[in-house]
Design brief:
Blueprint: H1 4-10, E1 22-27, E2 32-37, E3 42-48, E4 56-58, E5 65-69, E6 74-78, E7 85-90, E8 95-101, E9 106-111, E10 116-121, E11 126-132, E12 137-143, E13 148-153, E14 158-163, E15 169-174, E16 179-185, E17 190-195, E18 200-205, E19 211-215, E20 221-226, E21 232-237, E22 242-247, E23 253-258, E24 263-268, E25 274-279, E26 284-289, E27 294-300, E28 305-310
Antiparallel strand pairs: 1-2, 1-28, 2-3, 4-5, 5-6, 6-7, 8-9, 9-10, 10-11, 12-13, 13-14, 14-15, 16-17, 17-18, 18-19, 20-21, 21-22, 22-23, 24-25, 25-26, 26-27
Length: about 300
């Protein structure tokens, strides 16, 4: 079983493209959820949740907020109108990263203690299936049109492709060492997988399941996100304290922007003009102006900020 100390350093956002002006941010050490108002660049509300919140994701129809608590083996379900606890889904294991399926009432959750992906029915908030994957699954994302779920297996150095509709495995692809976060680009069909141990990012074709490239974004790459138009993707490097931007066509690194200490996760603003980066060691949120290519503000967060997710 992963120790609490080691577990803390493994956590980060499994990012998705953000298309909202409000965002939810988990603070693991503080046991709190912050609501960030991007329009006014301020924390709108701070909500106490169960201990050890790791990842957060919102229902695409605005009906619920899901917060994972790996060390407690459960997922909290909050009401997005008043942020009150609606129910707790007792999953067991260590539920970690989550991705919503906007076409069906289901939530996919990586469980790195039991080496499975959990399938939760979001209508009943019941655990309905466990899908076997590789060792210590971490990041997870979905191709909605292609009906595929991608999960990074941290200790197996692989990415698995699951069917989103039936319990079936499509492919297993080797990645760099200790793959962590995963993002999907629906415009070119590429999957981006950050690999922490060897400072690499694996690019995979979601149709052929072939490795396209292995990039070097920086030291200890963690969170990754894709622009709405699919032309760029963004990676935070924990040991370099920066955000780097890649051209999705040429796969060339085009821009490097300093953040604060130990950046974890990254999302984009609704207008794609800003990037927001949670910083674990600084207890802050970097506000980055992408046109100016620099950090323009740092918002104080509760202790141990990890993931950030858009409000639908």
């Amino acid at each position: 079983m992963i120790s609490s100390k080691a577990f803390v350093f493994l956590l980060a956002l499994v990012p998705a493209v953000a298309v909202a002006n409000e965002f939810y941010i988990t603070s693991q050490a503080a046991g709190q959820l912050s609501v960030f108002d991007a329009a006014n660049t301020e924390i709108k509300k701070i909500v106490a949740v169960a201990d050890g919140p790791a990842m957060v994701v919102a229902d695409p129809y605005g009906k619920a907020i899901y917060v994972s608590h790996p060390e407690q083996g459960k997922i909290s379900v909050l009401d997005p109108d008043n942020y009150q606890l609606v129910t707790e889904i007792k999953t067991g294991g260590q539920p970690f990263a989550m991705v919503m399926d906007s076409q069906k009432p289901q939530l996919f959750v990586s469980d790195w203690f039991r080496n499975t992906v959990l399938v939760i029915n979001t209508s009943s908030n019941q655990l309905v299936d466990l899908l076997a994957v590789g060792d210590s699954p971490a990041g997870i994302t979905i191709d909605l049109a292609g009906r595929k779920v991608f999960v990074a297996n941290r200790e197996s150095n692989s990415l698995m492709v699951l069917d989103a509709d039936i319990p079936a495995l499509h492919a297993t692809i080797k990645t760099g060492e200790n793959p962590y976060a995963v993002a999907f680009n629906p415009h070119n069909g590429h999957i981006y997988v950050t690999c922490v141990q060897d400072d690499s990012l694996t690019v995979i074709d979601s149709k052929t399941y072939q490795k396209v490239a292995e990039l070097k974004p920086g030291r200890a790459p963690y969170g990754v996100a894709v622009s709405d138009d699919g032309k760029q993707f963004y990676v935070v490097n924990q040991n370099d304290n920066n955000l780097v931007i890649f051209d999705a066509e040429s796969l060339q690194l085009t821009t490097t922007i300093n953040t604060e200490k130990m950046p974890e996760s990254v999302v984009l603003s609704d207008d794609q003009q800003y990037a927001y980066v949670t910083n674990w060691f600084s207890n802050s949120l970097s506000v980055i102006d992408l046109e100016k290519a620099k950090q323009v503000d740092a918002i104080t967060l509760e202790q141990g900020p990890r993931s950030i997710s858009a409000q639908p």
